[in-house]
Amino acid sequence: MTRIFDDDLQSGLGTRAIHAGQRPEPLAGAIMTPVYLTSTYVQEGLGKNKGFEYARSRNPTRDALERNVAALEDGRHGFAFASGTACVDSIMKLFQSGDHIICGQNVYGGTFRLFNTLLQKLGLTFTYVDTRDAQRIADACTPRTVAVLVETPTNPLMWITDLSAAAEAAHRAGALLIVDNTFATPVFQRPFAHGADIVFHSTTKYLNGHSDMIGGMALLRDDDLADRLGFIQNASGAIPGPFDCWLALRGTKTLHLRMPRHDENGRRVAAWLAERVGTERVIYPGLPSHPQHELACRQMRGFGGMITVDLGTRDRAAQVLERTRIFSLAESLGGVESLISHPASMTHASVPPERRAELGITEGMVRLSCGVEDIGDLIADLDHAFAT
Ligand SMILES: *Cc1c(COP(=O)(O)O)cnc(C)c1O
Questions:
Q1: Rounded CA Rg of the chain
Q2: pLDDT at 279
Q3: pLDDT attached to residue 1
């Protein structure tokens, strides 16, 4: 189990991003945490070792990343996984057959697929509710409810869940609140401050930020719950390799610098789009036209770089998607480079069409992940793509 260094919590977010969880390497004093490419550790004698026995259980590069991200989220324990999806899968192993989980209706498509195909077969039961209304969480609770899982803002509809209200509803039912904080990152949103019990990330996205690895992280405050998840991490073994941990650790060092720029570019692009296609078709929590703008302002310190725009038809969406040059047509998000995608046929293709229609994910929707390039170039790129 990797626990934070307590003194890391005394510094500000930027200092934590750069230093938390890392100490100069003892052999030569290397300032950068080495990539510990090893499967095992030489022991001094029977039962005598430096706390490292086998690299599925612990690796010093992974330890550093786990401490770093735990400190960024104001958690006490961190656990790294091979992907965001492996992280959710391992979290769900805290529960057992017959247990009931309430899940946000517009969670990440892969989370929905994992629940509805694999985990349901193993006896977990799921109810999907619109968590924008905490009363619906309360109404869906049963005596078997063990957890409420929410994502805020959601992808691609940018629904916002009031985390304090969700925590209250979950706790009243004796359930845990689990929050996917991938979109907002700890720079803009701190779920633990609102009562979350487990916070998780696809580190593939903003935390790493450079589109060069796949990973996940779970952060916790409670020691007993952390013991249980640490056991699962080792017993299930869905761990990331040390080089991926090192890449993510390099990424988090600039998280506090990148996020304000994603946010600035996001706001400017959203305003430009709203002027161009009408404010009701641009979905961005930072726009006053967003139905939950006020809640977003209260709960988040920034809105980030994710924007969804409805262009009406699949043909019009395709026209725009194929004409951008800086915004690359690709899945994923949160990297320094700007991306554009078509949720209905890409990220949300695993969600059945009737369900997509029910949620409001249309064929005309285009999703932008605004990177950290120069805003003038991003707007010029969109201007070219939107020209008919
Ligand atoms: C990408 C993503 C995931 C899944 O993470 P992987 O690293 O792709 O497995 C989960 N939640 C959100 C919000 C995501 O964007």
A1: 21
A2: 86
A3: 61
Q: Are 284 and 290 in contact (CB under 8 A)?
A: yes
Tell me the C-alpha distance between 315 and 374, whole Å: 29
Q: Are residues 189 and 248 in the same domain?
A: yes
For the chain, how many structural domains are there in total? 2
pTM for the whole thing? 0.97
* Residue where a domain terminates, one of 222, 237, 252: 252
Q: Are 189 and 161 in contact (CB under 8 A)?
A: no
Supply the CATH number for residue 368's domain.
3.90.1150.10
**pLDDT < 70: residue spans in the chain:** 1
Best residue among 202, 206, 245 to mutate for probing ligand 1's pocket (most ligand atoms within 8 Å of CB) is: 202
Domain edge (last residue) among 235, 252, 269? 252
Query: Among all residues, which ones are annotated catalytic?
Result: 56, 108, 180, 205
pLDDT of residue 163: 98
260 CA from centroid of ligand 1 (Å): 21
Site of tokens 């899982």: 149
> pLDDT, tens digit, for every residue of 262-273?
999 999 999 999
How far apart are the CA of 340 and the centre of ligand 1, in A? 16
Indicate whether 2 belongs to any domain.
no
- Is 286 in the same domain as 301? yes
Using one digit for the tens of pLDDT, what is the confidence trace for 50-77?
Answer: 999 999 999 999 999 999 999 999 999 9
Angle formed by the axes of helices 314-323 and 375-386, to 10°?
Answer: 130
Residue 81 alpha carbon to ligand 1 centre in Å? 12
Q: Which domain holds residue 65?
A: 9-252
